[in-house]
Amino acid sequence: MTGRGPLLIGVLSVQGSFAEHVESITRLGARAREVRLPQHLEGLDGIVLPGGESTTLLKLIDAFDLRKPLQDVIAEGMPALGTCAGVIILAQRVSSHNMQTLGILDITVARNAFGRQSESFEEDLAFEGFDGPQFRGVFIRAPKIEACGNGVHVLSRLQDGTVAACRQLDVLATSFHPEFVEDLRVHQYFLAIASDRRNISNTCT
Amino acid sequence: MNSEGAAGSSGPFVAISPPSFAHTFASGGDLTYNTTMEKSTFRTKSGLAQSLKGGVIMDVVTPEQARIAEDAGACAVMALERVPADIRAAGGVARMADPTVITAIMETVSIPVMAKCRIGHFVEAQILEALGVDFVDESEVLTPADESFHVWKHDFRVPFVCGCRELGEALRRIAEGAAMVRTKGEAGTGNIVEAVRHMRTVQDGIRKVKGLPKEELVTEAKSLGASLQLLIDLHESGSLPVVNFAAGGVATPADAALMMQLGADGVFVGSGIFKSSNPGARAKAIVEAVTHYRDPEILARVSRNLGEAMPGIEIAAIPQQDLLASRGW
Q: Where do the domains of chain A lie, and which CATH numbers do they carry?
């Protein structure tokens, strides 16, 4: 984790919108690596858990022994970004279904809590720290972040007050899909976290 | 031909409409919020298809089968009364499934549920939308209801997937509002050869359009029977504006990985799972094969001990009038 040069960000690529994340990351000048097996986690400056089907993602995480290595690298401080299904993977609690998530982020989520596909929507979001226009949030069969623990900082809310994005230490979660819009500010925000983390690691060694 | 603006956006990144600013003044002079919330945009429709990428969508006819599919890691299920192999065997007119079957499956699984309507049968599509299915497949596997026209899919809140054999057909369906396309293959045969042909033909078409000089695009649009605007977008972006899955004849993990290596974004498996001797194991193996489609060692491992695949049919042995792929225009 103490490399130089462009940041190297892993994108969990077992199923879902991983190619869109890879494209967003590389457009910002960082490098991206598709992660399908535990050895792909070595030497990363950050990890993205993309949108997809959370049940499918978790089954493939377990089928190829990624659970413990993912939990370990994030616990050791690797910055993580979860979007849509990725938020469910990161969450400590799922209120709507019995699911064995990675249990990292101190939040409670409910799956598909906005309704089935016909209820999927877009909404402009104010996002803490973003200059310029609001961020277009694309919510597709989205999970609802129902509750956040004390250490979780809310970054964005829907107009009805529902949490749309939050951060705990270097773990960032958005219940919408920043990988489906041209606006790269969420990825930029995540790369800034990863960059800070790498600088701290370099200073300490 | 005019293209629809909504479908005319390019690349994996669908163009963003300019941000709309939130404040409007109501007649009383109160400051009110324009919610700026929009449901069922083309982006939420094509975005669901993008979220299914790298995944396997499985045909199921009962809630029990749907649960087996979900447990195996399917990213969605297609709720049917009969799988294509049985539709082929039964003959006669194949229609939309009974809503009871579809609803029971929707109540059983948490993953997206798709269902099929007949080509051009917009009322079956309206019914499926009313049931709340997550995706409608306007499918040649059912008996077409219209010999000239497909459903105008922009009018629906629910997204649609449609079959295609070549680029022109894919772009016609996208112009009508399809948020996802798939190869037709030859459903219910357990024979991958037609899906391979259709995937290669679509990819060849894309490569050709990418390489054409601009002055040849209008004539290419004419010969493909496709929207010029979609063709211009394709020329610039180099890819379809929606995802393209493989379907029709996938029976083994190797078939699924073959289609992925040929450029499919994901795979539909129809009869291939529940017409095999060990559906649960085969379903899981196909899911894993689609994730690790470029890793032959993992493909070898997941292909072991799956029991008998579904019985296959040689395409040449099927009478011309019984070929499903030739349905649709």
A: 8-204 (3.40.50.880)
